[in-house]
Amino acid sequence: MNILEQICADKRVEIEERKKLVSLADLQAQAVESRPDFVEALRATPMGLIAEVKRKSPSAGLIRDPFSPSGIARGYEANGASAVSCLMDHTYFGGGAEDFAEVREAIGLPMLYKEFVVDSWQIAHAKTMGASAVLLIVGALTDGELATFLKEIRGIGLQPLVEVHDKEEMLRAIDVGSDCIGINNRNLKTFVTTLDTTFELAAMAPAGCTLVSESGIKAPEDVVQLKEAGAHAILVGESLLRETDPGVAAAHLLSLI
Ligand SMILES: O=C(O)c1ccccc1NCC(=O)[C@H](O)[C@H](O)COP(=O)(O)O
């Protein structure tokens, strides 16, 4: 089993346990305020920045300690981020609902529910948490699951960010009608990370689609190259979180755009 399969297998068990405490119907019955538009925010500047809040990852290990989700997110907001991605997974990324709620309270930017979605429960949960967008990883889903989850996310007024890593996944994302596609430069099976993934796949994105380049983005020059390749936005975590002031690092990353 590769790491993505392992995370998703564990996630299915976790969600079954969580459903025993809060059912899908309970989540769907909760009244929720509408949240700011994620895609509109990404398209409002020459290069949208989705800045990530995560403590650790399987590829990088511990990234930042001590860790203040709200402090980091406020820094991102003050320094030009368009949206914040918050990791929901605790086991592998050290995140969770507490981090998401803390960030939600601290900032007004749209938030991405960055999770390994394998069950409709998570989509309803994203809405109750105040997310604007939900990640769907094509490599972790069947075509049927992808279509169902995409419809459910849109049906409750949220926006799907559909993540791909190769040509076949890009075609699957397009076939199902994705209009916001994230090209992950990291192979989630091997952890090999190269911006060439975006350079190779960007031209496949349909006209009108919002294109996000994800992972391994470190320097202002990377951002210029990704924009030239057709990316409208970038998703960045580790390179910001390893700096003393992640907000200032975010501003620097966008400094050549
Ligand atoms: O990053 C990992 O190790 C990882 C492993 C398995 C599944 C997902 C994983 N990462 C998710 C991401 O791709 C990143 O959190 C995101 O794109 C930001 O990447 P980076 O700027 O390189 O932190």
TrEMBL record:
SUPFAM superfamilies: Ribulose-phoshate binding barrel. Pathway: Amino-acid biosynthesis; L-tryptophan biosynthesis; L-tryptophan from chorismate: step 4/5. It catalyses: 1-(2-carboxyphenylamino)-1-deoxy-D-ribulose 5-phosphate + H(+) = (1S,2R)-1-C-(indol-3-yl)glycerol 3-phosphate + CO2 + H2O. Keywords: Amino-acid biosynthesis, Aromatic amino acid biosynthesis, Decarboxylase, Lyase, Tryptophan biosynthesis. One of its GO terms (molecular function) is indole-3-glycerol-phosphate synthase activity. It comes from the Bacteria. Residues 4-249 form the Indole-3-glycerol phosphate synthase domain. It holds the Pfam family IGPS. InterPro entries: Aldolase_TIM, Indole-3-glycerol_P_synth, Indole-3-glycerol_P_synth_dom, Indole-3-GlycerolPSynthase_CS, RibuloseP-bd_barrel. Its EC number is 4.1.1.48. It is an enzyme of class 4 (lyase). GO terms for biological process: L-tryptophan biosynthetic process. HAMAP family: IGPS_B. Belongs to the TrpC family. NCBIfam families: PRK00278.2-4 (NF001377). This is Indole-3-glycerol phosphate synthase. It comes from Pontiella desulfatans. The lineage of its organism: Bacteria, Pseudomonadati, Kiritimatiellota, Kiritimatiellia, Kiritimatiellales.
